[in-house]
Design brief:
Number of helices: 6
CATH class: Alpha Beta
Strand order of the largest sheet: 3-2-1-10-11-12-13
Number of strands: 13
Number of domains: 1
Strand content: 15-25%
Radius of gyration: 18 Å
Distance between the termini: 18 Å
Helix content: 10-25%
CATH superfamily: Metallo-dependent phosphatases
Shape: globular
Largest sheet: 7 strands, mixed
Order of helices and strands: EHEHEHHEEHEHEEEEEEE
CATH topology: Purple Acid Phosphatase, chain A, domain 2
CATH architecture: 4-Layer Sandwich
Length: 298
C-alpha cells in the first residue's frame, strides 16, 4: 500500500457525511426515493447522516411521525443530526415570536427534542443552527413572496456555533448545518435575508463546510473562496424545473472537502453518482477539482 507522505499514521480518517434535505413528508414526499435511501445509504459507510430541514410539508403530527420513523430506522445504522426548516415551523402560533419561541416549534420539539443539535463523531463536530423562524423581523424583505419563506441567521446563532467550534478538539473537522441555502445556487435566489452580514459571520465561525438545503436545487460552492458549501436537493415531487432529485455525499479529509452529487434515476429506482466537486480546506481561493460524473480526488 502506498502511503501519503504528507499524512502521519495517526492522522484522522476521512469523515463521510450523507447530506439529505427537504424530505417534505406529507403530500409531496416521494416514497420510492425514501425506500431507496433506506436501502442504499448504509452501503456508503457514512460517518454521519445530516438532514438540513423541511422534514414536513405543513408541520402536522402525521408528517413529523413519518419523518421520525425514517430517522429512527436510519439512526439504527448511523448517527444523525437534523435541523428544522421553514415548513417545520408553526409560525402562526407565535408570529414575530411574540408568544415565545417554543410555541411555534412545539411539534418539532415533541418529536426531535432540541432545535440546536450538536453531534460529535470520529473526526468531526457537527453543529446545527436555526435559520427558519417563519414570520420574523430578521427574515422580512420587500418581496411579499418571501413572507414566512425566507430565513435569517441571528448573530446569536453564529456566535453560539463559533463557541462550539472553538471548544472542540483542534483535530476535528467543523461542520455547520442550516436549512436555508446560503448561496444563490441554481434558482438564483438566496435563502437568507441579510445574507451579506450572514456570510461574514459564517466565515468567522471556523467552519470547514456548511450543509444546507431549501432551494430544491443541488449545489456545491464556496463563500468568498474560502468556506465550502453543500446544498442538497429534495426527495419530494417539488423539484425545480423537472430536474431529478439529488442528495450529496460530503467527504472531509485532512486537506479537502469533497461534495459528490448522487442523482435519482426514477426508471431504475436508484441513486447513481453524478458530479463531484472538491475544495481545499481553510481559505482556498477557488475550486480545486470539478469532475462531472467522476470519482477522483485531488
Amino acid at each position: 500500500m502506498v502511503s501519503d507522505p504528507g499524512r502521519s499514521n495517526d492522522a484522522p480518517r476521512d469523515v463521510i457525511i450523507v447530506h439529505l434535505s427537504d424530505l417534505h413528508f406529507g403530500g409531496f414526499a416521494d416514497l420510492r426515493q425514501i425506500e431507496a435511501l433506506e436501502e442504499f445509504l448504509p452501503s456508503l459507510s457514512p460517518t454521519a447522516l445530516v438532514v438540513s430541514g423541511d422534514l414536513t410539508q405543513r408541520a402536522r403530527h402525521g408528517e413529523f411521525q413519518a419523518a421520525h420513523v425514517f430517522l429512527h430506522r436510519m439512526r439504527l445504522k448511523v448517527p444523525a443530526l437534523i435541523v428544522p426548516g421553514n415548513h417545520d415551523v408553526e409560525w402562526w402560533k407565535s408570529p414575530f415570536s411574540l408568544l415565545g419561541e417554543k410555541r411555534k416549534y412545539a411539534k418539532y420539539l415533541l418529536y426531535y427534542g432540541e432545535l440546536r443539535s450538536q453531534l460529535e463523531v470520529p473526526g468531526a463536530i457537527i453543529a446545527g443552527a436555526v435559520s427558519g423562524y417563519g414570520v420574523a423581523l430578521g427574515s422580512l424583505t420587500w418581496n411579499l413572496r418571501d413572507l414566512a419563506v425566507k430565513g435569517h441567521l441571528p448573530r446569536s446563532e453564529t456566535n453560539r456555533v463559533k463557541k462550539v467550534f472553538a471548544q472542540a478538539p483542534a483535530e476535528l473537522a467543523r461542520v455547520l448545518v442550516v436549512h436555508h441555502n446560503v448561496l444563490a445556487g441554481g434558482t438564483g435566489r438566496m435563502g437568507l435575508a441579510r445574507w451579506r452580514s450572514a456570510h461574514k459571520r459564517l466565515l468567522d465561525t471556523g467552519a470547514d463546510v456548511i450543509l444546507c438545503g431549501h432551494d430544491h436545487f443541488e449545489g456545491a460552492g464556496q463563500i468568498e473562496g474560502g468556506l465550502a458549501v453543500s446544498t442538497s436537493g429534495t426527495h419530494s415531487y417539488r423539484q425545480r424545473g423537472g430536474r431529478p432529485s439529488v442528495f450529496n455525499l460530503v467527504t472531509l479529509d485532512h486537506q479537502s472537502v469533497h461534495i459528490q452529487h448522487f442523482r435519482w434515476v426514477s426508471g431504475d429506482r436508484q441513486f447513481i453518482p453524478s458530479d463531484k466537486f472538491s475544495f481545499a480546506r481553510k481559505g482556498a481561493p477557488k475550486v480545486a477539482v470539478s469532475i462531472a460524473g467522476g470519482d477522483q480526488g485531488l
